[in-house]
Amino acid sequence: MLRLTVNGRVHEVDAAPGATLLDVLRNDLALSGPKYGCGLGECGACTVLVDGVAARACVIPAGGVVDREVTTLEGLGSRDAPHPVQQAFVDEQAAQCGYCLNGMIMTTAALLARRPRPSDREVREALSHNLCRCGTHVEILRAVRRAARLMTPPSDAQR
After folding, report:
1. Could you tell me the CATH number of the domain that includes residue 65?
2. Which domain holds residue 65?
3. Residues 37-61: pLDDT tens digits?
């Protein structure tokens, strides 16, 4: 039995410590935000936040996140109250097939939490490890810039 904190709630799951976090999130907790992509931690489709840091759930043993805070796409915001990054991706229509969307949003949320006003170079570097198959790169970059504006307090924006 593993005791995991996911999206602010404590869950007890009957899973082996070596089971992947992705499998536990999708199969035991019915969270569909993180996607199975490559299974090797290379594509970013399974990205979650572990203690606020972007991490690949397909290569993390579930036992490795006991006593840590895991946030999935569902934990960022809701349909009625989306996180600013989620709203920016919607506003900029930064998705086509949806394969990369979870990873792009979660990576952006982690980036903006540590660098509220990143340069374009920093954005490109942060997102370079997420595979986008359909080429919405321009829209994704616009969404990240919009999210940064949405998340910057008005007093900071005037400096």
Report:
1. 3.10.20.30
2. 2-76
3. 999 999 999 999 999 999 999 999 9
